[in-house]
């Protein structure tokens, strides 16, 4: 069983699901409409009250998770925690409350996971489609075919921020809607051409806001009962006629949704106008379902992160043979170092494959360019934390170690860094790692034992070892080399 927890800008949500017969069946759901985005103060920080409500919600979710025997749990946070200035400081408290790591994912990763969730439910491998997900703080638009994503964009506009910006006093007017719709159109107008959209493409709406709007339209007999330009305009006019949030009386519109529905509707109208969309079909799937599908794929060794690494290698013209040799050597050294935890193995492998992507920027300081690109690039499947870890590994592949000295307190991370540095040295010296050719240990100091014939055949390795002794000495670690045999 898998669990997905979505820390959204409008609501915190939880799904627990089980993979059966090529579908994921949801067996438990929970929702807390905490309106996190409304808890940002004028300086962009989450208020103490907003933090308190968030922690209380996650404490409740933790109790639910503990009732199930779960194979994997993934907790993802979206737009509000992406933009909150005090998010990083608040993160440890969130993790303590839920009992699992919390990943603040990019808008692009959010879009990818949303599409995975929708594609998994639809199970139509050849369908050309677009998915629109209007969240509390951002809106994701994804163009794809079947399970393949063609393009994804995340726009920093959603139900909560639009409602606060244009309907904060509860008054619903024609002018407020006009300005809110224009605002929505301004966010997306420059991106429309990126999606290769035409009217033959099926459009799905995956968010709770979209389903709430569709349900309200159907229950109140607006237009033909589906989400079309005519029916959303009629819903808009009905809301304007009510004049105030407190006076809304529409079947299907829950009271806790009414306060933000205007912002979501304005975004929907604006996007439909810009793309020229004739009809949107709501679908009961999205981010949480996508997270569970991602966990299922990882469990079956079909890891999306592998594809991201391959894509980066192609995009930045990596010498694949050279990169794979370094990766193989790095993993060989990592095993010789006998890590206490194998968890770093995958990140070391991927980091080694990507360690030279910065060469496309400059040969000088390429490791710094590589590290920056990994830390800030769009890498579907990877969390921000994973990219930061790989970035530090790549930054530590050569040169002084003070730049990552704090992270070296983690012994297995230090062994990963040493393994990558040794692999890069061996690559420069044209040495292939052979069994019994070299021994390496890392305890209070680093001990290298290398065969004499190897040093004689590849004399430049002595130079690299000398430099390495200097670098490790710079952080107070002895690097001892013994030539034997």
From TrEMBL:
Under InterPro entries, the record lists: ATPase_NBD, GppA/Ppx_hydrolase, Ppx_GppA_C, Ppx_GppA_N, PyroPPase_GppA_Ppx
Family annotation (Gene3D superfamilies)? 3.30.420.40, Exopolyphosphatase. Domain 2 (3.30.420.150), Hypothetical protein af1432 (1.10.3210.10)
Q: Which CDD domains match?
A: ASKHA_NBD_EcPPX-GppA-like (cd24053)
Q: Which positions fall inside the Ppx/GppA phosphatase N-terminal domain? A: 18-297
Pfam family of the protein (one): Ppx-GppA
The residues covered by the Ppx/GppA phosphatase C-terminal domain are 305-433
Keyword annotations from UniProtKB, A to Z: Hydrolase
Name the UniProt record assigns to this protein: Ppx/GppA phosphatase family protein
Taxonomic classification: Bacteria, Pseudomonadati, Pseudomonadota, Betaproteobacteria, Burkholderiales
